[in-house]
Design a protein that fits this description.
The chain has about 350 residues and is of the alpha/beta class. About 35% of the residues lie in helices and about 15% in strands. The protein has 13 helices and 13 strands. An eight-stranded parallel beta barrel has the order 3-4-6-9-10-11-12-13, surrounded by four helices. It has a two-stranded antiparallel sheet with strand order 1-2. A two-stranded parallel ribbon has the order 7-8. Helix 2 packs across helix 4 and helix 4 runs parallel beside helix 7. The longest helix is centred in the middle third of the chain and has 21 residues. The two termini are about 35 Å apart.
Length: about 350
Amino acid sequence: MIWTTPIHLGSHRVKNRIVFPPISANWAEADGSVTGRILNFYRDISRGGCGMTVLSGTAVSRDGKGSDRSLCLFDERHVEGFKRLAGIIRENGCFASIQLMHVGGQGNPQFTGFTPVSPSGLECRATGYGSRALTTDELREISQKFAASAGLASRAGFQAVELHLGHGYLLHEFLSEHANRRRDVYGGSAENRMRLVLEIIEGIRQEAPEILIGTRISGEDYLIDGINREVNRIMLPILEKAGVEYFSVTAGVYETSSLKHEAMALGKFFDYARDIKSFVSKPIIGAGKILGLESAEKHLTENDCDMVAIGRALVADPFMIEKVKKGELYNRCTECGECQYLRHHKPEMSCPQWETSYD
């Protein structure tokens, strides 16, 4: 079976091709620190047999939080909890990556306490909040914050950082003509729209040269002037040349959420991944409602991607992989949607299939 075979990310050997993706649970402390609940959850996930874990979207600043109890990593006080978390993941033989993000113009002031910021000061149709355009001095500060957070992640023991370039968050907004209407060196051409991301990558390489850099990218935004195949054919080879070692493929922004879920149900996310494999050489992580290892194996066999992310199925039973290996029954995801807490206006992630509360 292909999913059981190792794969290399940069110089790192990952034991198999199953990835637990960056699923937000909203379980952090109010200041973004790691809680016991998070430690317990990722202990089970890493023991359960996946080859790689990507820690959920972690904010690089106070105003960058995606929810009221998002993880944050921008202060010395955060480091100890993340060190324990990285240690738990790695001691169970799992490759440890952490997703770094800034919510950008899709931010909710009720969560962050800050006015949302974006490339061009546009209103987010999904949230109804306006945003403030960032100055060039502020962009330099944001670049430094991403690099500093990567340095803290490296000190904590994470082997990779994943820049969130999708879902309409700040770095995605800069890449997309839909959100980026700037007339300075950070707007206009594809090369200019990439400038902030490339500066961040260079900053990370200087701050934490030993850490691997991956990205979460959008295969399709479902917007006329958003990210799509043509834009990716320009941008992704440039990111690869800049040092990106893996691409994790997703799709959609807040305002196209319904189209995103329709496309996911039809398997379109793997179409995007397969196409991206044709013009970059680094490993591609495919995703999209994979509820069992047989589906993961199918996509790997058909060369849609190099690794497969399994999210909700591992939320329902973190030990699914080990149980399948032993021929044991496991708790199957019923697709009830309880894990998508923001979509259902709930305060945090939950799953009726859990056998433990993780408290």
